[in-house]
Amino acid sequence: MPDEPVSDVISGGRDPDRRPTRPWRLIAGVTAAVLIVSAAALHLIVAGSHHPPHTKAQAAPSSVALTAPSMLHGTPLPPGGAPSTRLFLGGDQLQLLNVGGRATASLTTVLLGTAAAGDPLGSDPAVQQITSAAGGIVALIFSHGSAGLPDIGDVIFVPVSTSGTGAPRIIARANYIALAPNGRDIWVEQAAPPWGNGPAGSPAWLVDEDGHRLAGTRDLGSRALVAATVRGLFVRGPDQKLVLIDASNGAAEPTGIPGNAIIAGADADEVAWQAATCAAGCPLHITDLRGRPGTQIALPPGTVIDPNDASDFDPAGRRFALPLDIIDHQGVVARTSVYVADPSARTLVRLPGGPIPVANLPAVVGAFPAGSSDVVSARWAADGSGLWIVATDGLYFQVAYWTGHGPLQVLRPQAGLAYKFGVPGTGPAGQASSRRLPRQGDDTPKPARAESGARDPPLGRRGRADDCGTQPCSHRLGDHTQLAVVILFALLTALSNAVSVTTQHIASTADPRQDSGWRLVLYLFRNPLWLLGWVALAGSFLFQALALHNGQVSVVQPLLVTELIFALLLRQFWLHQSIRPVTWGGGVLTCAGLAVFLVAGEPRGGRPTPTSHHWIVAGASCTVAAAALAALAQWGSPGRRAALYASAAAVMWALVAVFIKTVTDTFTQFGVGGMFLHWPVYALAVSGVAGVLLEQAALHVGPLRSSQPFLVIIDPLVSIALSVWLFDEHFVPDAAILAVAAVAFAVMCTGVVLLTQTTPATMDADIANNG
Q1: pLDDT in tens, 308-333
Q2: Mean pLDDT on 499-515
Q3: From start to end of 593-725, where are the E strands?
């Protein structure tokens, strides 16, 4: 069901003896347009499940002629198709990939095996760790020396601001690093055997972005640094035991995590891990280091965590991106898929764009791993609004971006290595953030979250300074191209609703014999206008599904108010009905208020999978509210009853909208058959039927002028509330600007009331005079 009312927007009768002149061209044109756009739109929904043809590499990295593999699948990422982002890619060299904005993606080398004088890095230096600190990127570059252990290498800091990147500088010499919980400083370690070729005792210390020591040296006792947490340094010993080291006194305490566990990722206060001794399909454990209850999440059968892959907690700690290897019946890794776990709901959702195939390539010098398997890394954007994915097979790499819904947006594969990467955050006005986050050990209720990925060796994490990361919070409606597509589909939904209501009203009132019952039904089925109304109705459902699938509910639902404007235009220019200036004034108020609300409020954010608790509360609240309003509508004046029934219907249409969004996500993940194995499609059907019945009751018991304002206004209000509760959508965090957005929404509502109350009740005289 479309979200906006699909019944009579044009009240009153119609002169049966007077019809618009030759509507066939309009009928054919609108039908063709709806079918063409619907087909193109459907292609966008399912594009993520189709594999594009492989493309030839322009130049192979070795003498072996190879085809550049398409490891990630989805829609091509156009200029402006993702938020402007700098990705620092680590392999045999450090590279900078500028993505997003209006320019095409560009790849440049930042660092290529450089070293300070007198500190050679060996014969095969490579980027072994990348972590994102406030104001830049920290990379660890070293070679493997005797016994294949990590030699002492260079810890490089690359300043990053909105205006560009600064000159890299060496801030320490180490073979392990970890981001401090404050998201700004770095713990470095020179690990001794069996973890590295460092000095005895494995000394570790804390440095800032300039390399200044912020704490005394702490010997870790032949342990390897995995992560820096709010409870101390998370390390692994020679016996594989995992303990926490108090940085102030060196005291060790247990973590409760098995010593041989595979560490999938860690942030400042949580560790994600899997037991190493069980068969494929063991659960993912998330241990809270602050003493709160942990979580177990069932993994799909036949999947395992690969320590070479990089996982990541989002900045809010609500989602965990996790690549999983899929084992075939012979016990061999066949492919890799990326999942997003919701620890609070204990759910796991597979992202579109996979599975990522495992390569079987010839060994090539410099490849990592040496021509055998794939390595997949996932990193959330600085504000948690989207997920970046980089896959490499040792010879080529490919980058993709996921907004939280819809298909992956992918770049073409490129020759080279990128088995680790970081997404930096920058401070206000393009400068490195000067806000001093609490240092480790400060008494704060919730430390700044760090990007996960700590493992053996630990991977990078990112600090978070505020609600928008360390980036400015302005202009977060999303990427401009995708936003334009969402707005287009929402407006097509509104237009289709207006066409459906208008054509079906005309068809149902134009029978010259004034039939009823089955005779009227037969007449309607032979009437092209009535059939066109059903085509438009189907198009409106598809367009709304596409808009909700690709955008925020708090953007799409308010835009559907424009159905009233399209209905006015159809009455003026197709039915030749005179519309009073005051009615057009109401339309102008509606559009102006809507535009200011969206621009000032800047709806943003969103998570792909609401928790079960949130769904139960949302469904129960809307059902109880609609039932209570319908019960109150059993008595009173016709106007009062119509308004109450309309309010109940609007609540149900808002619930329908969030179900549509979830059903489209289920469809892209599991296909048509899998969609019917999950509950959202049935919830959509039930709520849609309830919405239709309540709306028809509103139209039956009282005048349209009493019901329509409530249908149009309450729907977006409840939809916005549901989007915040279910999908974690939110608005600009500036109270003054939010006040402007609220006033604009009130202006829009005033325009809706003025428009609906001044629209002519009948068309008889106008048709007679203007036909």
Answers
A1: 888 999 888 889 999 988 887 777 77
A2: 66
A3: 604-605
- pLDDT score of 526: 67
Determine contact, residues 528/551, Cβ cutoff 8 Å.
Answer: no
CB neighbours (10 Å) of residue 429?
9
Q: Which residue has the higher pLDDT, 424 or 53?
A: 424
Rg, C-alpha atoms of the chain: 30
Count Cβ atoms within 10 A of the Cβ of residue 745 and give its class: 0-12 exposed, 13-18 middle, 19 or more buried: buried
Residues with Cβ within 8 Å of 212's Cβ and at least 6 positions away in sequence, in order, are: none
Strand partners, 579: none
Residue pair 452/272 in contact (Cβ under 8 Å)? The answer is: yes
d(CA 239, CA 770): 91
For the entire predicted model, the pTM comes to 0.51
Greatest CA separation for the chain: 100
- For 512, 711, 717, 719, the CA distances from 629, given in Å and listed in that order, are 39, 13, 16, 17
Instruction: Evaluate the CA torsion angle 487, 579, 27, 664 in order and state its sign.
Output: positive
CA-to-CA separations, 271 to 260, 264, 311, 430, 455, in angstroms, rounded: 14, 8, 11, 32, 10
The dihedral of CA 588, 594, 600, 602: what is its sign? negative
Question: What b/e sequence results for 501-537 when a residue is b if at least 16 CB atoms lie within 10 Å of its CB, and e otherwise?
Answer: bbbbbbbbbbeeeeeeeeeeeebbeebebbbbbebbb
Q: What residues have CB less than 8 Å from 734, skipping those under 6 apart?
A: 473
Q: Please tell me what DSSP assigns to residue 150.
A: B
For the chain, give the number of residues: 771
Q: H-type helices in 560-637, by residue range? A: 563-573, 581-601, 612-632
Q: What tokens appear for 434 in the block?
A: 């000067």
3-state secondary structure of 593: helix
For residues 315 and 628, what is the distance between their CA atoms, to the nearest angstrom?
40
Helix axes 24-46, 638-675, angle to 10 degrees: 50
For the record, the structure tokens of 393 come out as 């097979």
409-410 vs 75-76, strand pairing mode: parallel
